[in-house]
């Protein structure tokens, strides 16, 4: 597991989630922290996820107009 000083890979998927090598802690605007110990974590970028801040593939249900 990387320490705080080591770099983590972050991949932005066009039209999809942000993929982060895990484990991760995501600090939300309300001050709470969401945690995931998964190897790769998909963080929602569209805010449609019912599991926000984590992606549940809700972005696939609607076609985006870019």
Automatic annotation (TrEMBL):
It holds the Pfam family zf-CDGSH. Gene3D superfamilies: CDGSH iron-sulfur domain, mitoNEET-type. InterPro entries: FeS-contain_CDGSH-typ, MitoNEET_CISD. The keyword Nucleotidyltransferase does not apply. It comes from the Bacteria. Transmembrane segments: none annotated. Residues 21-65 form the Iron-binding zinc finger CDGSH type domain. Keywords: 2Fe-2S, Iron, Iron-sulfur, Metal-binding. This is CDGSH iron-sulfur domain-containing protein. It comes from Kutzneria chonburiensis.
């Amino acid at each position: 597991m990387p320490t705080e000083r080591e770099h983590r890979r972050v991949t932005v998927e066009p039209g999809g989630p942000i993929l982060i090598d895990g484990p991760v802690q995501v600090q939300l605007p309300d001050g709470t922290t969401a945690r995931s110990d998964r190897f790769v974590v998909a963080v929602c970028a569209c805010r449609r996820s019912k599991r926000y801040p984590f992606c549940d593939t809700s972005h696939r249900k609607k076609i985006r107009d870019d």
